[in-house]
Amino acid sequence: MPLIQTPSIASVVEDQTPQLGGSLSTNGSNINVESGDVFYVHNLGTEGDANYERLEVKWDSNVAKIQTATAGTGSNDTLELIGSNSLLFIGPTLASFVNASLTMTQSDTLTETYNDFVPATDGTYDSGSSALRWANTYTDTITIGDGVDAVLTADADNELALRNSTNAQSQYIYNTYTDASNYERLEVKWDTNVAVIGTASAGTGTQRLLQFECNQSQVNSTSASRIMSFAYNGSEKARFTFTSLEPKVANINLGSITSGQRWGTTYTNGISTNVETFTAASDTLDALNNVCLCDCSSNAITLALPVPVAGLHFHIKKIDSSANTVSIEPDDPGPELIDGAVSAIISTQYNSITVVSDGSNWFII
Predict the structure, then answer these.
(1) Segment 222-268, tens digit of pLDDT
(2) Which DSSP category does 193 fall into?
């Protein structure tokens, strides 16, 4: 009979063959699940129980899923990613959170320091899409632009603010926009400590009319010296004060002489007009010389009327007792006449003439 030799105990090698059974296997460092199967980690119950709570790791229609699941009396628990630096990678292009909530915490407490939710690259990814939008977004502040260009925030209940430290802010509402050089827009902005509401345009755009519509309107000013100003290209032409409507430059009309648009009826306690005394031998009148007092003590005076404008009129009076006369002449004697003559003369103290134009000639009234 042959001799059977038994190895010594030292020659026995540990059996490392996977012992998990089914479709599970291990190579000493990894646990492998065969294609089509699911890996369960139970919190309550075991496989086949009607009541359970478990973590599932699986593939579902080519989508890898890590999720919690329940049945019967089990409760669907929270899924947490915990670590000194926990990263959630979603890619390559789509992230979906359906009927669920995503909470980012640091030691179970929301913080500003560790909970930035940012895209991997600047200006590349969207939050929502043109077809799928978030219902409501709750935030204290929205910072817009490359860097801190503008900050949209709530200053208080029912108060929406656009601000960025001490930098003056502007808001634009476009009527048309082709590019940054061709547009039409409404502007609400601060310009050198002046609040501006107006229309603007560039390139092929047209600067449009600004219109205010309401049942009643009111301009309220805390300054009695300037309630409302009227300006052209930044130059003030007239202003309302607490007591008056004041022109700030010469030849500002109330109504229009050239287009014939006049106010219907003016109710006033009195009219104050410009009065000027003339002593020079000759002078040319303008629209401000409404009342002309002529002192001929030293010499005769010739007054030249301006170019005829319909409705323009002058009151001219001789106030001295000398024999010198006041001669009134049209701007272009001949084509322009005064009651059919090339001049009108005042030779007696305190006599006066009022002349008015029809746009072509002058008439004494």
Answers:
(1) 777 777 788 888 788 887 777 777 777 766 777 776 666 778 888 88
(2) T
